Amino acid sequence: MTTANVAVLGATGAVGQRFVRLLQDHPWFRLTEVVASGRHAGETYGDAVHWIEGTIPANAQDLPLRALEDDLDADVCFSALPGGSAGPIERALADRGHNVFTNARDLRLAADVPLVVPEVNPEHLALVELQRRTRDGFVVANGNCTAIILALALKPLVDDFGVDRCSVVSLQALSGAGYPGVSSIDITDNVLPFIEGEEEKVETEIPKILGELAGGAVAPSRLAVSATCTRVPVLEGHTVAVSVHLQERASIDDLCATFASFSGKPQRLRLPSAPGRPILVRRENDRPQPRKDRDAGGGMSVTVGRVREDPVLGWKFLVTGSNTIRGAAGASILNAELAIADGLL
Amino acid sequence: MTTANVAVLGATGAVGQRFVRLLQDHPWFRLTEVVASGRHAGETYGDAVHWIEGTIPANAQDLPLRALEDDLDADVCFSALPGGSAGPIERALADRGHNVFTNARDLRLAADVPLVVPEVNPEHLALVELQRRTRDGFVVANGNCTAIILALALKPLVDDFGVDRCSVVSLQALSGAGYPGVSSIDITDNVLPFIEGEEEKVETEIPKILGELAGGAVAPSRLAVSATCTRVPVLEGHTVAVSVHLQERASIDDLCATFASFSGKPQRLRLPSAPGRPILVRRENDRPQPRKDRDAGGGMSVTVGRVREDPVLGWKFLVTGSNTIRGAAGASILNAELAIADGLL
Amino acid sequence: MTTANVAVLGATGAVGQRFVRLLQDHPWFRLTEVVASGRHAGETYGDAVHWIEGTIPANAQDLPLRALEDDLDADVCFSALPGGSAGPIERALADRGHNVFTNARDLRLAADVPLVVPEVNPEHLALVELQRRTRDGFVVANGNCTAIILALALKPLVDDFGVDRCSVVSLQALSGAGYPGVSSIDITDNVLPFIEGEEEKVETEIPKILGELAGGAVAPSRLAVSATCTRVPVLEGHTVAVSVHLQERASIDDLCATFASFSGKPQRLRLPSAPGRPILVRRENDRPQPRKDRDAGGGMSVTVGRVREDPVLGWKFLVTGSNTIRGAAGASILNAELAIADGLL
Amino acid sequence: MTTANVAVLGATGAVGQRFVRLLQDHPWFRLTEVVASGRHAGETYGDAVHWIEGTIPANAQDLPLRALEDDLDADVCFSALPGGSAGPIERALADRGHNVFTNARDLRLAADVPLVVPEVNPEHLALVELQRRTRDGFVVANGNCTAIILALALKPLVDDFGVDRCSVVSLQALSGAGYPGVSSIDITDNVLPFIEGEEEKVETEIPKILGELAGGAVAPSRLAVSATCTRVPVLEGHTVAVSVHLQERASIDDLCATFASFSGKPQRLRLPSAPGRPILVRRENDRPQPRKDRDAGGGMSVTVGRVREDPVLGWKFLVTGSNTIRGAAGASILNAELAIADGLL
């Protein structure tokens, strides 16, 4: 297989930088275009970006920054565009024949856009055929960071025991708000009990991700989800306290075994960004912790712990994962890898 | 009314220091004895204590530190003794005629010990009569910090709408772990998903606090409670995300009105430590926040916010309160004030 | 004495909010006008402001927000305008007869503007006569937050021992950067080694503050100052590590006595915002600490500790103070109180 | 060359864990013994240790924990023993023929113990011959974490320009205090102005490290050092603000070139733990930062920035480095590598 040229849209932002970093030595993708809003026209990426962590990858440093209006060469576009403006731009790129893998929220619930977590619902990718009827390219979305982490933890339970109700409280990291994001004055010695639009995303995206593709459409799962999303003074790594009602009987050991043995299509296909095990299970009672578990599997594994009975819904546990890798840039990249393996590119 | 002499047991610890501070200018109580484990024998309080915040109150500075084995003069003892060893010491003090108001966990579930939140179940205080049959003094307990804050928020809902299921996730402050408590290496840029024994306390204390006193015993409420307790990098102020199932229909405005108008016996009696309003309701979507709301009502009010529908249990909201004042030292003091007003002292 | 009506310029910003809070119950000043840039025209202060701490004072809540272009009624204007644009606006206000006490940097070094720390150089206030020759009003500046805290600590040493060299490293709080100020992503688990323009301010303002007024001009002190200014994850309270070369011999006890007995004109005049003691001395080796000492004297005292010999410059110590009260809003207010006491208003 | 068997003393502590991690895949050393105080006798390392970061290396997990009194097989011992008790134990090990590379403070200033930073004073290693006259083994010490980082930054200046006075203020990380170390209650939203014994270490160790070996003894450098050491809420990475008086003229570019081109014996010998460049120079004004620069060169490079003139001493800059790698465990390991390359083992 040859290497595909890829573009990153919104390349100077926090998620854009994650894309650039993850694409640094990617075996299938070569970063050839970085795109941002017009005010940096003519600058190189290295000059325009306020790089947040470590050092800018050498392969990106000297790329000229393209404007959103420019024609792009890359077949594959990774979008880190801001929600609200991303949708029309991404649709227009698809019209012009580009294949867009987006982390933006705008098109996640569109009927013809697959919302894919490759270990959970790889078959949804077939929705792109709907888009291809009227245009050359397509858009594939990944979920909100918390929704992805949660979907990974729920999928094996859905498969083995059935889940009909799920109540979650998230403790979300600062990197999820982008840069500059949350003011240090707001979050030092504090917790913020609200993240704009986040709870709605979790409550609506999970049913679509866990939904069934039939007759060219996704019928959302009837799983009821309640989400409370909070922000805590943690740099990276979302932690989600999950309570679930299972339709079948289980034991703690059953649940742990189900989590630990979970594997999906990315693992079978050995996709480059697929972690060996999508879910790690820790039996110590003080895990998962964001600082200690966010890098598991190169940031692509989530870690489950404290599986125990719940007097109200039946079972509860916590799950932690990297919000900027598994929950954002790595998610889009894994989607693109799946699309390639499926012959869609 | 004359001023009662009071002793603080475990006076050098974090909660002990809170007692000392809150008793500084108390209209009904005069701090005359500070008690700690023997190794500081002969020292003054000011010399023995590693004072955590601000300056040691002048009235405590020069008190000689008494040992636990010493005879005490004070009728009223406030106990900040560590769980595990507190129970036998507190029972022995009651045997010798002292009236003990304890923050320790040991006796909270004992059948003859009232577990009181004065706005919620002041009538439980009558349980002390059971103790008095066999001894001169008595022990009154307050709940775990999270349980108290939660009980205050649940009580008006129980009264007005009925509550049969309740699922909570707490984001607890560092001061709840005492001093030195949590290592800075463990909690910086991190969340800890586990607090030893905490979830069991919340799940068992809430039913007793909301239980019914009849025939000289408390029949626990049949309210099912599920708790997940986490530690976050916040100095003071626990935040609890609460989901409840109500037995009657309600609207958001109904719930907010119920919270805001809640008042109890301490308010009617105008007890010195009673806040004007036990529950403050904030309608902004970014409240409650621990740093901004922990001092409400001198640390004796809790703040409720984000009241909204919950797709799984029906309703959800967040509540924040001071864990060391309303959730610990202030709770014991308000209990003692209630006992005085009830003529038990 | 009657109460003066005062206006706060830049009232919605972080320092502006401090002014509003400190003016809440001021015995000499009544807040009658709040002024901000035009985009909030027609709104009340309560609607326009993103209030950072606690609750908006009731007396400010409903004040209509005035634009900078509006005519003002208040004789006394407190300016929390941003550096860069403040200077011309403040001069224009003085032209129109207002007396401006500014926290902005623009005019601090202007030859006809007194740069006053009332305990240090109250006589410099006479410089306003230069301004009054050509206009009705005047501008009085206070120093940069770090410069004020440092000037207070240096003044008694200058008086008693002479100081010719001073080297400082500051660990500055987040509130000094305004709101939203420093991104939480930049400062969590981190230190920033640079604050734009800060070192130059300290190095140039200290000589003017410690300079001598003669012949209608301030001759700067020849004290050489070197400053390194860093930002640390602390909400409020700057800490400065100071090394000094004294011209006369001294002992640790001499220095501590000099610091502790320091007092100035605000103390003699008993100005409302003057702390009883401008400098508190702590002999424990783990003080001063910003969280424990920033509120000393209502935020108007600075705390000195760890006075000890320095193998290079002779003596060293640390000093901590509130950067938003003594270092900003409280500084301007104390200047205005001094001007009133001096009969300049 | 064959692989040497090594033991780690104090293996369960924070620095001990760093040794274990750094020895995980070391080309010259094989970890065969882990030693700790007696209370864990009979346990495996994996069972006894409270592992702080990530996962215990597989090669250490099942090693039986040895007691300090046990006979050891390893020729090379790395000591992470606590200061105060380390010295006699390390001397006794040397008496029994072991070669000890210690991070403990006890013997750093002993006349016959070399205090080595391999890029700075590799020739001091010859001091071990003094020890070998009376025993089979020897002890080599590395400096205090701040002293090592500072010594690296000073050495090229000493060589190229001469340095006679140096004034430093350190902002030190939490990991430097070991585990559990600093209470989260003490350091959240705070700075601690004092670290027990730290300033004396910096002030006395730097002259020995920069001293001259002649006639079988080290004559300390006459460089005067003043240190103020503070603790800040940063997990790892000490930052030091340095002012120096140079004996020769220089420009900023001279200094930057001197830092950037600095290289020493470890680089010439290509020792396994030697970074390519001991000192990295950043020209951006917002570097060095501990979170961004602590991992440079695998934690073995220090990063210098903000080189600029100092009105008092002449020049100033900041330097950041990993306190647990370059400043502790990695320092001992590099010393051992140098000793092997020098044929001392």
Descriptive labels:
homotetramer; 345 residues; alpha/beta; Rossmann fold; Dihydrodipicolinate Reductase, domain 2; six-stranded parallel β-sheet; 29% helix; globular
Would you mind describing this structure in some detail?
Chain A is α/β, with parallel strands linked by helices. Chain A has helices at 14-22, 45-48, 58-61, 86-95, 128-132, 145-161, 184-187, 198-209, 252-260, 265-268, 290-293, 325-341; strands at residues 4-9, 29-36, 65-67, 76-79, 99-102, 138-141, 163-172, 212-214, 217-219, 224-231, 238-246, 279-282, 302-310, 314-321. In chain A, a hairpin with a 2-residue loop joins strand 8 (212-214) and strand 9. In chain A, the strands form 3 sheets. The first copy, chain A, has a 6-stranded parallel beta sheet, sandwiched between helices. A 6-stranded mixed beta sheet of chain A has the order 10-7-11-14-13-12, with helices on one face. Chain A has 2 domains: 4-144 and 329-341, Rossmann fold, CATH 3.40.50; 145-322, Dihydrodipicolinate Reductase, domain 2 (2-Layer Sandwich), CATH 3.30.360. Helices cover 29% and strands 24% of the residues of chain A. Chain A is globular and about 60 Å long. The model of chain A has no long low-confidence stretch (mean pLDDT 96). The first copy, chain A, contains 12 helices and 14 strands. Chains in contact: A-B, A-C, A-D, B-C, B-D, C-D. The B-D interface holds B 14, 52, 174-175, 179-189, 233-235 and D 14, 52, 174-175, 179-189, 233-235.
